[in-house]
Amino acid sequence: MTKLRAWLKANKLTADPSDYTAVPDLNGTYNVHSLVEALQAEGMEIQAETAVDIITRFNRKAAELTTSGYSVNTGLVVMQPRIRGKFTSQTFDPQKHKVYISVRQGVAMRKAIADATVEIQGEQESKMTIYLVEDLSTDTPTNTLTKGKNARILGSMVKIDGEDPSVGITFTHTATKTATRVDRKDVVRNKPSELIILVPDTLAAGKYEVSVTTQFSGGSKPLKAPRTATYKGEITIA
């Protein structure tokens, strides 16, 4: 049985002061390599390279079949192709029409959800939170970012705002404590719930802590003093 921890957050869509929504307390992210490592820790005897190769081939074939017009049920999810856009002729125009994949829960995922317990940890103390940091140069969220490539930071109240010298996005090397600031011109998307940045190409290989400091208040005036949110997961720069 698994446990999902969550914080309560005021629901801004209603005027009821007692109305809250639950926000999962994310512990980090997994990719294929870290999932295989977790399986090996449970006793899986297949070599990591072999397991990664099988999973990579499986994913490629599932994607190929889905985009060939098949409904693909992996047990975990069910994928079906869809096409979005208005047609005025029998011609598919990539500028007007988009292929996307509908993904819904499979049997394994529904069973995992049914078996999970949820632990509410209380009301979220700070409105500012980082939920996820992901590498946009790959197809799935991972704990590894690529130097010189784009990364996305998802959260709440993370928009970069204010003139305090501490305001910005910082990568701190966990071993050396060397802090590297992302240049403001390299913040290519700056929204309250989403930041897209260019990962500094000067970062040395290793493990990093990612933090966002801002004076963004959600209103017309910035906060008098900046506040900081730090991502709970550990980020690797390869």
What is the compact description of this entry?
This protein has 238 residues and is α+β, with helices and mostly antiparallel strands. The chain is built from 3 helices and 16 strands. It has a domain at 126-237: Distorted Sandwich (Coagulation Factor XIII, Chain A, domain 1).
Describe what this molecule looks like in 3D.
The structure is a single chain. The protein is an alpha+beta fold. It has a domain at 126-237: Distorted Sandwich (Coagulation Factor XIII, Chain A, domain 1). It contains three helices and 16 strands. The chain has helices spanning 32-41, 48-66, 107-115, and strands at residues 3-10, 20-24, 72-73, 77-84, 98-105, 117-123, 129-135, 144-145, 150-156, 168-173, 179-181, 187-190, 194-198, 206-214, 227-230, 235-237. The strands form four sheets. Strands 8, 10, 11, 14, 15 and 16 form a six-stranded mixed β-sheet that branches. Strands 7-9-13-12 form a four-stranded antiparallel β-sheet, with no helix packed on it. It is globular and about 55 Å long. The two termini are 34 Å apart.
Quick tags:
four-stranded antiparallel beta sheet; 3 helices; Coagulation Factor XIII, Chain A, domain 1; 238 residues; six-stranded mixed beta sheet
Helicity, in percent? Answer: 10-25%
Q: What class do helices, strands and sheet pairing give?
A: alpha+beta
Architecture of the domain at 126-237, CATH level 2?
Distorted Sandwich
Largest sheet: 6 strands, mixed
Determine the N-to-C terminus distance: 34 Å
The helix tally amounts to 3
The radius of gyration is: 21 Å
The chain-level mean pLDDT equals 92
Which term fits the overall shape? globular
